UniProtKB/TrEMBL annotation:
Its EC number is 5.3.1.6. Catalyzes the reversible conversion of ribose-5-phosphate to ribulose 5-phosphate. This is Ribose-5-phosphate isomerase A. It catalyses: aldehydo-D-ribose 5-phosphate = D-ribulose 5-phosphate. PANTHER family: RIBOSE-5-PHOSPHATE ISOMERASE (PTHR11934:SF0). It comes from Paenibacillus montaniterrae. GO terms for cellular component: cytoplasm. One of its GO terms (biological process) is pentose-phosphate shunt, non-oxidative branch. Pathway: Carbohydrate degradation; pentose phosphate pathway; D-ribose 5-phosphate from D-ribulose 5-phosphate (non-oxidative stage): step 1/1. The lineage of its organism: Bacteria, Bacillati, Bacillota, Bacilli, Bacillales. It comes from the Bacteria.
Length: 221
């Protein structure tokens, strides 16, 4: 947890007065939102867009002013976590189920800073099952198509219930084991009817901050 906190808090150093900031989702992004909340209470003037209802609720509790896409066109900086990061800064995201909003917010941001602990840094993506968001209608057919791409697809459930995203969709966790060609896989997945988006983030970030268990932090650019 300490490694996550150190990385997330460092990312907040880049936030300036007047910025529109994207708030990520998950246990690492949580620390960035907490620090932003403290800075806002001390007078920092920002507006934010959250990538999940959970992060929106946290931001509201902390007094961080929120805006919507109808009020702005571009975010200055988004700070978010990831499940895996490779050396080319390709990512797997969506472990927390927020991949779609995370990708929409990241795509509208001038800069996406990814904050992770050292255990998320990998040589090749794929050990972490890739989350794919699919619509409920015909989900059995969509899952069969995912299987045909060579993965083991598991429909996500929590506490005995099917998991439903903030957008009212299902998540399928697809174990590929190794993802040798993330760009191609990203395209193939999103061509399947019923797939809304997948957790591969390719070419979306130029800055990754890694926190280490021994308290060190490394900024990779
Ligand atoms: C949520 C995400 C998270 O950023 C990712 O799962 C990492 O989570 P955590 O910081 O809790 O390890 O993509 O959809």
């Amino acid at each position: 947890m300490e490694a996550k906190r150190i990385a997330a808090e460092r990312a907040v150093d880049d936030v300036r007065d007047g910025m529109i900031v994207g708030l990520g989702t998950g246990s690492t992004a949580y620390y960035a939102i907490q620090r932003l909340g403290r800075l806002v209470q001390q007078g920092l003037s920002i507006q934010a867009i959250a990538t999940s209802l959970q992060s929106e609720q946290l931001a509201t509790q902390l007094g961080i002013p929120l805006v919507s896409f109808s009020e702005m066109t571009e975010l200055d900086l988004t700070i978010d976590g990831a499940d895996e990061v490779d050396s080319a800064f390709n990512l797997i995201k969506g472990g927390g189920g927020a991949l779609l909003r995370e990708k929409i917010v990241a795509a509208a941001s001038k800069q996406l800073t990814i904050v992770v602990d050292e255990h998320k840094v990998v040589r090749q993506l794929g050990k972490f099952a890739l989350p794919v968001e699919i619509v409920k209608f015909g989900y059995e057919a969509t899952i069969r198509k995912l299987f045909q791409l060579g993965c083991e697809p598991i429909l996500r459930a929590r506490d005995g219930e099917l998991y439903v995203t903030d957008n009212g969709n299902y998540i399928v966790d697809c174990s590929f084991n190794q993802i040798a060609a993330p760009v191609e896989l990203h395209r193939e997945l999103n061509l399947i009817p019923g797939v809304v988006d997948n957790g591969l983030f390719v070419g979306m970030t130029k800055k990754v901050i890694v926190g280490y268990d021994n308290g060190d932090v490394q900024v990779l650019e």
